[in-house]
Amino acid sequence: MPEGDTVWRACKRLNQSLAGQELVRTDFRVPSLATTDLSGRSMLEVVARGKHILMRLSGGLTLHSHFRMDGSWHLYRPGERWRGGPTDEIRAVLETETWTAVGYQLPVLDLVATDKEDSVVGHLGPDLLSPSFERAVAVANVESDPGRTISEALLDQRNLAGIGNFYRTEVCFLLGLHPWRPVSDVDVPAAIDLSRKLLKASVRNGVQVSTGVDRPGQRTWVFERAGKPCRRCGTTIRTASLGEPTRQRVTYWCPACQPEG
């Protein structure tokens, strides 16, 4: 699933291309928006809120989308061939005189009043990539359930928005935290600060790297490295599912560098 940094970069590209332009044609291929026509409205701005995308339009409307696992927005020039996927995976087309934005496999796509955006993002905690990030609020949110595992607490977007499985896994490794370590036994401010640092570095550099080595196969410490030796100590990286049965995520850890207890 794309994480906060990926969504932020996507919003930046969309905003640079579409903001200030009038929509000359729109095409929505989801039942709830099948008869919606936004042509004639101007794109005011495209902003990220955690992992959510908010396209604010003239007339007080916001087109809200979320990538979840497979969604994406692609930008094309007039006449350029669309290469984002099969035609039957297209969910939205937003066309201006100079750009066409095509949304593929968007599992979440709805239209809300701009002054009612809280109906779709109001549940989110402080956004780690926001310039006005409310650190104290995020810390308090995570610490409010001391018996919860740090992995689940960091992934809960109601606590703080933007962290996904990649950053949660790598932060736990870098801080020597076993994935099932309870919040009460964790330096929560340190975990949040490191998460924000990694996300901001990714936005700045355009690639997700936690090791400091931007080369294929060397960018992560433990994420998706099950069965391979730990880069620090050589111990075999382990993997397991973590979380509630309906919301389980695969986690990775080094049993030596991240001891239990």
Walkthrough of the structure:
By secondary structure, this protein is an alpha+beta fold. It folds into two domains: 4-121, Alpha-Beta Barrel (N-terminal domain of MutM-like DNA repair proteins); 135-253, Helicase, Ruva Protein, domain 3. Helix content is 24%, strand content 21%. It has six helices and ten strands. The chain has helices at 4-18, 118-121, 135-143, 150-155, 165-174, 188-205; strands at 25-28, 43-49, 52-57, 61-66, 72-76, 90-95, 100-104, 108-113, 238-242, 249-253. It has a four-stranded antiparallel sheet, covered by helices on one side. A four-stranded antiparallel sheet has the order 2-3-4-8. Strand 3 and strand 4 (61-66) form a beta hairpin. The chain is elongated, with a radius of gyration of 20 Å.
CATH class of the largest domain: Mainly Alpha
Main sheet specs: 4 strands, antiparallel
Kindly name the structural category: alpha+beta
Tell the overall outline: elongated
**In total, how many beta strands?**
10
Low-confidence stretches: none
CATH architecture tag of the largest domain: Orthogonal Bundle
Give the topology string: H per helix, E per strand.
HEEEEEEEEHHHHHEE
Assign the CATH topology of the largest domain.
Answer: Helicase, Ruva Protein, domain 3
Mean pLDDT: 95
- How many helix segments? 6
Rounded Rg: 20 Å
Kindly state the percentage of residues in helix.
10-25%
Lateral arrangement of strands in the main beta sheet: 1-6-7-5
Total separate domains: 2
The gist of it:
Belongs to the FPG family. This protein has 261 residues and is an alpha+beta fold. It has helices at residues 4-18, 118-121, 135-143, 150-155, 165-174, 188-205; strands at residues 25-28, 43-49, 52-57, 61-66, 72-76, 90-95, 100-104, 108-113, 238-242, 249-253.
